[in-house]
Every structure is written in structure tokens, then in C-alpha cells.
């Protein structure tokens, strides 16, 4: 049943077209089309049962099929196919695991881990076992609070490149900032720097072909992740590369929430100011970011650069305060890596849990962990945008507010433009910053990357920034929130119905 949806849609189109050419639009066309659609919906429903998905997700699909057959059929084709994702990405998973195992243990940092204390040590151990990624104590990080800080630092470091530049992005725009970066990359190619650029085919579907051709003609390598050849039959359509990575000469790296586009500089008329968080990384931990990129590159091109030239070059040791651990997660893993670490962070918190997420659609595990933490007397806060970016996700997220507020979670809506930061801070000492949202897609379908910070100066900076964001946000009061009109509640509940699929 691998391509049952695509095949069904093709058959439906062929039969409908043939009947229309012979007879025009009549009752027979409607009858045969409805019959074929019903048959394939039954097959799909049976297949969903056999996949042993989450019961709520299974019921949701069946309800959609019954209430909106044709829309449900198309929606399932776009977002619902499972295809045993571990089989699809088996080559990538084993490559990742073998490579991480090869470099683990080189730093000899066991004593430093013990010095961190029990709480950070447990998180470091969990992240290492799930993500096969070591923690570094010789890495310098700095938090970048917005697009201006982020792109000015990126441009400065790109201009210093001498050997290679690796970029990996979900969204790339052919606008002012996108054009400026393109010109810098072309200039670096002329100087003899190797430039490799991996972009997601869905996230960057609006990217002009001329942008890609200019870079390629200059000598840069630019490759689409998950290209949409025959998308009706493409069983990888739903698994997207949401990572944002830059690695320069193997010693400087960037990751965080910002894609490449003018809106991330606050130049979008709809949202105005854009609040986001990025991270610049210098030193040993950049190697892990490099590994993630090189493995994604190999998966997309079958060209391997997993060599000492890119991994074992002399990376200067920076004086880092605390530990830095880069973790990549995605549908190629046997575990939901980043979600599991998030759950551990929340469940083991002793004082506070502060979260910022533009898209908040938690699964039952994360939701329960947050409520239990708040009911236990911890300071649990959630920062979300006031204005919607993706309306279905926005309205779905608000249906979680009443039970969170009732348990003692404090929810704040950011008022100054759009808030796109993806942050978790625990006990003012440990933090996560990266590309992962608190939603089903980031946890189960997207390729993501996060930096986990243990008692670093950057973690403290995130605490300070979070407190500043709270000052320009409005707290959601349960009494006021409950007074929403019936139409809005109905809309939110409808979107909540789709939340297991988002």
C-alpha cells in the first residue's frame, strides 16, 4: 500500500477524465467518482488501523474521512501518509549513528560532566544516548536577539571564510537580504572558497530559479532537500528539512530560528517587528553542526565529505563557561530525540520552566508534563505570539490555554510584532535554543537542530531576554479568556480537531 493515495488519486482522475470525454458531466461521472473515492477511503482507513498510530490520531482521520471525504482524501495525501519513515531514511539514520559514534569520547570530558551536578548530568547523558552527540566544554556561544544582530554577524563571518561555507535552510528568499548573501557567496567562490548550499524544496518553493542558477554558474553547489519530483507519488513529501545551519571553515557556526528573508529583519508589512533568537557558536561544538550538515548533504547528493579535512581540522579551543551540546532530530531517528529531551527538561525541573514557541500544539506527554510542573508549584511560563502567522495552528494552540491556566501555567502573548523564538529555559541554568517548535510537526516529521546549553553565559542571556519579552507582553487571564464568543470557540475547537495532524 506504499503509494495507495497517489495511485488512488491518479485512477480517480483518469476515470473521471475518460468518462467526461465520452459523456460529459452527468450522474454516471459523479457515481463512479464517488465509488472510487469511497473504495480508497476504506482502504486508507484500514491501513491506518494496521499502522497502530496514536488512537487520537487514528480517530481524527476517520472523522475527517466521514465528514469531508474528498477534502480528507487530499489532506491525507499531503500530510497523513506514514510509510514507515524509519525505512525511508534508514540509510541516513545508520550513517548518522556510525559517524557520531566514531567521534564520541574523543574529548575526555567525563569529569567535567560530573562537576555539572546531577540535573545537568542526566540531561547530557540522555541527549548523548539519543542524539549520539558529545557535550563540549571548550565552546563559546553568543545569543543574537533579532535579524539585525543575526545577519550582521553572519555577513561578518562569511567574509572571513577561507576554506568552505556550508549553509542549510528551510526558507530562502530572493529579496534584499537573500540577494546580499548570494553576492557574498559568489565573491567567496571567486576567492577559492567551497560553497555548499542545501535548501528545503517545500519551504523554499518560491525561490526563483535565477537565484539558484546564479550561484551554480558561479561555482557554488546548491541542492534541494526532498525535491518534489512527481509529488502525487512522493512518499517523502511530508518530511521536511526545517534546520537553519551555517558552518564556516569548521570553526564558526550559526543556528536558531531565523531563515533567510527580509521578514526576519522586521521588514514585513503584515507583522512589522520580528522577534527571534539565533546563536553563534565558536569552537569544538561546531564539529557536531558540521556533521549534521555533511550527513544531510550526503543523503541529498550521495557525495560524502565526512573526512578529516572537514571534521578533524585544528579547531581552536575557546574558553567556554559550562557545556554546549548540539542535537539533530528527525524522522530518520528511532527516537523522538528532541521531544524526549524537552520532556526530561520539564519533568526534572526544580524551580522554573520558561518556554517561548510561535507554534504551540503539544502532544499529551508535553502537555501533561507542563501541567504537573505547574501543579507542583514550579514557575511555568509560556510565551506565544498575539497575532497569527499560521491561522490553523494559532487557533488550535489557544484551545490548550484553559487547562494550562487552570493548572497554574502563566501564559503571555507577545505584543510587539511577531514572536518566532524557540526557547526552553529550566531553573535559570539550562536552556535549549534552535529550530524546534512545540508542535507535532517538529517532534515527528521535520528535521530539526537545537543547541542545549548547560550553565553557560548564553543561558543566562536567554533568561534576561525572556524577562524583557515578558515586559512587552500581555498575560492571559483565565476569566477574560473564557469570555471568548461562541463562534471563536467553535473555530478553535475545529482547529484543535486537526491538531494531531499538524
Summary tags:
single chain; 502 residues; alpha/beta; 8-stranded mixed beta sheet; 7-stranded mixed beta sheet; 21 helices; 19 strands; 48% helix
In short:
With 502 residues, the protein is of the alpha/beta class.
Task: Please provide a written account of the structure.
With 502 residues, the chain is an alpha/beta fold. It has helices at 4-23, 27-50, 55-67, 69-79, 85-88, 90-103, 110-115, 118-131, 147-160, 176-190, 209-218, 286-301, 308-311, 337-347, 364-375, 391-398, 401-407, 440-444, 457-471, 478-481, 486-497, and strands at 139-144, 164-169, 194-200, 221-225, 245-248, 252-256, 274-275, 278-283, 323-329, 352-356, 360-361, 379-385, 410-414, 418-419, 423-426, 430-434, 438-439, 448-454, 473-475. Strands 9-18-16-15-10-12-13-19 form an eight-stranded mixed β-sheet, with helices on both faces. Strands 1-8-6-5-2-3-4 form a seven-stranded mixed β-sheet, with helices on both faces. The protein has a two-stranded parallel ribbon with strand order 7-14. α10 (176-190) links the parallel β2 (164-169) and β3. α1 (4-23) packs antiparallel against α2 (27-50). It is globular, with a radius of gyration of 24 Å. The two termini are 23 Å apart. The model is unreliable at 1-25, 83-88 and 96-108 (pLDDT under 50).
Produce the secondary structure layout.
Layout: H1 4-23, H2 27-50, H3 55-67, H4 69-79, H5 85-88, H6 90-103, H7 110-115, H8 118-131, E1 139-144, H9 147-160, E2 164-169, H10 176-190, E3 194-200, H11 209-218, E4 221-225, E5 245-248, E6 252-256, E7 274-275, E8 278-283, H12 286-301, H13 308-311, E9 323-329, H14 337-347, E10 352-356, E11 360-361, H15 364-375, E12 379-385, H16 391-398, H17 401-407, E13 410-414, E14 418-419, E15 423-426, E16 430-434, E17 438-439, H18 440-444, E18 448-454, H19 457-471, E19 473-475, H20 478-481, H21 486-497
Helix pairs in contact: 1-2, 2-3, 3-4, 6-12, 8-14, 9-10, 10-11, 14-15, 16-21
